[in-house]
Design brief:
Elements lengths: L3 H10 L5 E4 L2 H7 L5 E4 L5 H7 L5 E4 L3 H15 L6 E5 L12 H14 L4 E7 L10 E2 L2 E5 L5 E2 L4 H11 L8 E5 L5 E2 H12 L6 E4 L1 H11 L2 H16 L19 H12 L1
Parallel strand pairs: 1-2, 3-4, 4-5, 5-9, 7-11
Antiparallel strand pairs: 6-7, 8-10
Helix pairs in contact: 1-6, 4-5, 7-10, 8-9
């Protein structure tokens, strides 16, 4: 996926042998060449995981939130008896006990807890909003933010996150650490979306805001779980913003350097 693919490539570029466990082998074969091992299986199945992790010294976990807690619990159980020395995991910048009232955050909080209590060396990464999420706010020729979203976010490029994860595996200083990952600039969601549209959708000259009450009504009328989930997620962020956690200043993994404008130009060049 969006977060997993770059991590795999950065690990490969750092000299590691990389095995991909995937639920969709055909998709993985399109994304990863034969220099990667590819293993089809269910990450919540202990038997599958035991085979997938055989001979591995580290496991990086990057999964959809609906299954990640179950998968993390299985990973740490299998890893404890399978010789795995290191676990890395993608959490979130607002994951904290005070925010566990929101189901997605609660799952990530419990996943972090399971990793910490496993006794296996770990590194947990907690990024804020990623720049690669901006295309999701454009649909059918319109750009819209759900809710007021008054808070600025330090948008971070996935490439920076992937570089930090790959680097962490070679540094003793990153063991048993939790890193909050912010990009170099704080930008409101509507402004970030305007900049994205100016480069990729110049025909869209205005970013609208859809009230959350209207999102809830639309979700109820259409019975669309995607709309419902998006509305709940944006309602959460309208309340908590970027959270009260901030990156440490020691920068042992190298702070993210990609600004939003630089990322837009790189993405445009790659698209061309």
């Amino acid at each position: 996926g969006t977060l997993g693919v770059p991590v795999a490539h950065f690990l490969k570029n750092h000299g590691y042998g990389v095995r991909i466990m995937t639920r969709d082998l055909q998709k993985a074969q399109k994304v990863f060449d034969n220099s990667f091992e590819r293993f089809a299986g269910d990450p919540t199945d202990p038997g599958c995981l035991e085979k997938a992790m055989e001979g591995c010294s580290g496991v990086h976990i990057s999964l959809p939130t609906d299954i990640e807690l179950q998968a993390v619990e299985v990973v740490v159980r299998v890893a404890s008896t399978d010789g795995v020395e290191r676990i890395s995991y993608i959490s979130g910048a607002t994951v904290a006990e005070e925010n566990c009232w929101f189901p997605m955050i609660n799952r990530k909080y419990l996943a972090e807890k399971a990793i910490r209590e496993s006794g296996i060396r770990y590194t947990i990464f907690c990024p804020t909003w990623i720049m690669e999420s901006l295309p999701m706010f454009v649909n059918q020729g319109r750009a819209a933010v759900l809710g007021k979203q008054p808070y600025p976010y330090h948008w971070v490029a996935v490439g920076d996150i992937a570089r930090m994860i790959a680097t962490s595996y070679g540094l003793a200083e990153s063991v048993n650490r939790r890193f909050i990952v912010h990009g170099p600039e704080a930008i409101r969601m509507d402004e970030a979306l305007k900049r994205y549209c100016a480069v990729f959708h110049p025909e869209i000259t205005e970013v609208s805001s859809m009230p959350l009450w209207l999102v809830r009504i639309l979700a109820a009328i259409t019975k669309n779980q995607g709309i419902k989930g998006a509305g709940e997620l944006m309602s959460y962020f309208e309340k908590v913003g970027e959270g009260s956690n901030f990156p440490e200043l020691d920068g042992i993994l190298g702070a993210p350097t990609n600004t939003l404008d630089a990322w837009l130009q790189i993405r445009k060049a790659n698209a061309s």
